[in-house]
Write a structure and sequence with these properties.
Helix content is 41%, strand content 24%. By secondary structure, it is of the alpha+beta class. The strands form seven sheets. It has a six-stranded antiparallel sheet with strand order 13-12-11-16-15-14, with helices on both faces. It has a five-stranded antiparallel sheet with strand order 2-1-5-4-3. A hairpin with a 3-residue loop joins strand 20 and strand 21 (643-644). The termini are far apart.
């Protein structure tokens, strides 16, 4: 052995043992409990295992003895066993029998031998058959003999029984053996149960140790003794070093703990712990709070010349006993700072609220009143707003507005904490004198302060009587600030304080300027909107008809009302057509503003032009739809207020007073209403059609036969819908108002009644209403002839027409009318097709019509000097006041119109 290793041996062993003990040492209580539990479980498992083994061995030996004894006795009585022993070859019979019994009984061996000890059957070692058995078997002569022997294979239980003949003599012996080692399997089968129970006990113990560990960690917050000591020291240091008083009161109202700051703030005696709170001489309210256990947050109590903020919380909900803990701090200086911060916060909130409340509408006067309502009473007791006259009209104010000698300003809003204010009323004109707060503010562009109105000589000199009334009312200070936007002085806003309110200070002036600068932008926006609205309304009214044209087919009346704040695109028209017919039109352009009004004018002009072509309603709407689809194409134009203009709606109707026939079509417009002569009111069953500009779908014409005196009511959707009424409700209200009207009421009275019933005080959309009562020509006003398809008929028809003119008293028109009819009939015979018909109508003028079945229209041209023809239509154009062509479903009609009085020198003028 090396010398060094021999020298280090004892010390090394001691060091290793110390390290092992250090590692095996468990400091936590839960670990110690776990180790004790582990030792107990190991001892219990060892004892149980030893007892089980001993008990199993004893049981196995006893069980083996009984088994071998029973088997030996039973086998010895097997019939023919003794005869087999006496036979010449006992082994041949006994060996198979012994093997079967061993296998079926599960024994280790069976030996059958004679009285001389010779083996005749041997199951374990067949090679021993014929040899002598070992051991003493003579005791078996007296009965079954069981013996236990220890052999190399372990304990062996053997039972020997004598085999007797029927006469009682002994023929041989039988031995059955069983090794006790084979019973060890029972012990092995019980070991898993034993070890499983031990493991379960160990797991339960481990869980208990973990629970104990967690409970201890929860109670000590994971700290050991050293940490607990250090924490207590830190807690004590912090408790007395913090600049906030801490006072703990028990459930009986006694002081349990008070730190140094609490002693200083409350002036507590040195030995305060354990004393009742009621004996400490504290403020009664504070003492009541400390003993009540009531939760409180930042409640302020006086203590000498200090204001103490106290927070009190009960200790019971947090694991402690009954009582409370209070924290106390000095807030004397903080209260003053908090008051200033609260005032600043209130002013910021006022500016924010004013931004939300001022400018909700685009009405100048309403915006000014919203400013007054926003500042009273949060900033001023009273407030007034004065604006330039030009601002109220929407124009930019003139230079020098409000300054002495310049344009005056007018009061538009006033408000206050009381209704009986002593100021100039709304509508009064104010001309500030030099030196007054209003004049100073407008001239300098900065807010002017009059902290004491009794000393403001210029203000008093302007109107001494009114000034004395204001002072007697209790008003003592004011701030007058200019309303300026984009460098323009719009007017002034004046804030007044009265009564017990503090006078205005310099900080109030700064705030007033900030507030007014924001409000001035809203007022200027309203001014600019007023200007745009006025311009749009003027444009719209200039594009609408100024009155209804004279015509004989209908008695008509109308109403038009623009929206309160938004100009729209509603329009209507009554258009005279050839043959004394008349067209009724009502339309509505999508959107509002200047662009909607301009689009309305373009559509109205287009309808007038299309109507001059004498197109049927469906074809006119189709052309108008195509026009709307191409309006502003490639040029994205947006409506002033609602977005892109995408289309329009329209209703077009044509009424013929000769036949009473009415044809109408609509493009997305509300249906018209018929009021029949019997009082029945109904909507016309007219297909709606798509709005103009959508395209893709045709329009359908509905034809009606109207009796004279029937009312036809056309309107726009603004009449029946608004924010408080949907379309269905509005249509029902329209029917009711028409049904309640008098049967003999004129269209003008019908318009008035409908407007009174349906129009709201502040309409949000344009409203157009057109009411027409139909008329029917007398038969005496109409003359009709069918023309045979021969040129000889021209003279006959011409003579008949001359006779009819004589009947009507229009002899002086005979020559020109006959000449016109001759040319028109000749053209129809030459270029037209049958049937050909002539009709003359007399009303405010004379209308001659020639119709045929051809769709070929004649054209006016200038004939050369050598041409034989081509002058007929030229003569017609010269002799008639108007002439034209209109197409029908079966051909065309060429018409001419003449005044009832022939002009002088008509033919002389033609020759010049």
């Amino acid at each position: 052995m090396p010398l060094s290793k021999a020298q280090d041996g004892p010390g090394e062993h001691r060091s290793a043992w110390a390290r092992l003990r250090s590692r095996l040492r468990v400091r936590s209580v839960a670990g110690q409990v776990f180790l004790w539990l582990l030792a107990v479980v190991v001892l219990l498992v060892g004892a149980a295992l030893t007892t089980l083994i001993l008990q199993a061995h004893s049981f196995a030996t006893s069980d083996a003895a009984h088994s071998t004894r029973a088997a030996a006795v039973t086998l010895s009585r097997y019939p023919g066993l003794a005869a087999a022993l006496d036979s010449a070859d006992p082994t041949a019979v006994l060996q198979p029998l012994a093997v079967d019994v061993q296998k079926s009984g599960g024994f280790d061996y069976i030996v059958i031998f004679g009285t001389d000890g010779t083996r005749y059957a041997q199951t374990a070692h067949p090679e021993l058959i014929g040899k002598h058995v070992y051991g003493d078997y003579e005791p078996a002569l007296k009965g079954p003999y069981t013996v236990t022997e220890n052999i190399p294979l372990g304990p062996d239980v053997d039972t020997t029984v004598a085999i007797t003949r029927p006469d009682g003599s002994v023929a041989g012996f039988l031995s059955v053996g069983y090794y006790v080692k084979n019973t060890g399997g029972a012990v092995g089968r019980q070991l898993p149960v034993l070890f499983g129970g031990a493991a379960a006990a160990l797991a339960v113990g481990t869980g208990g140790a973990v629970l104990v560990r967690r409970r201890l960690r929860r109670q000590t917050h994971g700290l050991g003794p050293a940490e607990m000591t250090r924490m207590y020291e830190h807690h004590d240091a912090v408790l007395h070093a913090v600049r906030e008083g801490v006072l703990i009161v028990g459930g009986e109202g006694r002081v349990l703990l008070a730190n140094d700051e609490a002693r200083r703030l409350l002036e507590l005696p040195p030995e305060v712990e354990g004393r009742p709170v009621a004996e400490l001489g504290l403020d009664p309210g504070l003492a009541e709070l400390l003993v009540s256990g009531r939760a409180a947050t930042d409640e302020v109590y006086p203590a000498e010349d200090q204001l103490l903020a106290v927070n009190n919380r009960p200790t019971a909900p947090f694991g402690g006993g009954a009582g409370s803990v209070a924290t106390i701090r000095d807030t004397t200086e903080l209260r003053a700072l908090a008051g200033q911060a609260e005032a600043a916060r209130a002013r910021l909130q006022l500016i924010y609220d004013a931004g939300l409340r001022v400018g909700t509408t685009l009405d100048v006067e309403r915006t000014a009143q919203e400013l007054v309502d926003a500042v009273v009473p949060r900033f001023a007791d009273f407030a007034t707003v004065e604006l330039a006259e030009a601002v109220l009209r929407g124009d930019e104010p003139l230079p020098g507005t409000g300054v002495a000698g310049g344009p005056r300003i007018r009061r538009v809003a006033v408000g206050g904490i009381r209704e009986d204010w002593p100021f100039y009323p709304v509508g009064s004109q104010i001309s500030p004198l030099p030196g007054t707060p209003e004049e100073t503010a407008l001239r300098s562009g900065r807010a002017a302060l009059a902290a004491d109105l009794r000393r403001a000589q210029a203000w008093r000199a302007r109107d001494p009587r009114t000034a004395d009334r204001i002072l007697a009312y209790g008003v003592h200070s004011l701030i007058s600030a200019p309303l300026k936007a984009r460098g323009l002085a719009l007017g002034t806003a004046t804030f007044w304080r009265a009564g017990e309110s503090e006078p205005f200070g310099q900080e109030d002036v700064t705030f007033a300027e900030e507030l007014i600068s924001r409000a001035a932008i809203s007022i200027d926006n309203a001014r600019r909107y007023t200007r745009e609205h006025r311009m749009a309304e003027a444009l719209q009214r200039s594009l609408l008809p100024r009155g209804l044209p004279e015509q004989s087919a209908l008695e008509a009346a109308y109403r038009y009302l623009p929206a309160l704040h938004r100009v729209g695109g509603d329009w209507f028209d009554v258009i005279p057509l050839p043959g004394f017919r008349v067209a009724l039109v009502v339309g509505d352009v999508v959107g509002h503003g200047l662009h909607a009004a301009a689009t309305m004018g373009r559509l109205r002009t287009a309808v007038l032009n299309f109507a001059a072509l004498d197109l049927p309603p469906d074809e006119l709407l189709a052309r108008l739809d195509e026009l709307v689809a191409h309006l502003d194409q490639g040029e994205p134009v947006e409506d002033d207020e609602t977005g892109t203009v995408t289309g329009a709606t329209c209703l077009y109707a044509i009424y013929d007073p000769v036949s009473g026939h009415c044809a109408m079509a609509r493009a997305g417009h509300p249906p018209p209403v018929l009021v029949r002569t019997d009082g029945g009111v109904e909507f016309v069953d007219l297909p709606a059609g798509p709005p103009l500009g959508v395209g893709g779908l045709p329009f359908e014409t509905t034809e009606l036969q109207l009796a004279p005196g029937t009312l036809l009511v056309l309107y726009t959707d603004g009449l029946v819908t608004n924010r408080e009424r949907d379309l269905e409700t509005g249509l029902a209200a329209l029917l009711r108002s028409l049904a309640q009207a008098r049967a003999d009421a004129s269209p003008e009275e019908i318009c008035r009644a409908v407007f009174d019933a349906l129009v709201p005080p502040r309409p949000s959309d344009d409203i157009a209403l057109l009411v027409a009562r139909t008329r029917l020509f007398e038969p005496s006003q109409v003359a009709t002839w069918d023309v045979p398809y021969e040129f000889a008929a021209v003279s006959r028809i011409r003579n008949a027409c001359g006779g009819q003119l004589t009947v009507w008293g229009l002899e002086e028109l005979g020559f020109t009318a006959e000449l016109i009819l001759s040319e028109l009939i000749t053209n129809a015979l030459r270029y037209g097709a049958e049937p050909i018909r002539v009709r003359m109508l007399r009303d405010t003028s004379l209308v001659c019509e020639v119709s045929d079945a051809s769709s070929t229209a004649p054209h006016l041209r200038y004939a050369d000097a050598t041409d034989e023809g081509g002058r007929g239509l030229f003569l017609v154009a010269q002799l008639a006041e108007r002439w034209g062509t209109r197409y029908t479903a079966r051909g065309k009609v060429i018409w001419s119109e003449q005044p009832l009085t022939a002009p002088e020198f008509q033919f002389e003028a033609m020759l010049l």
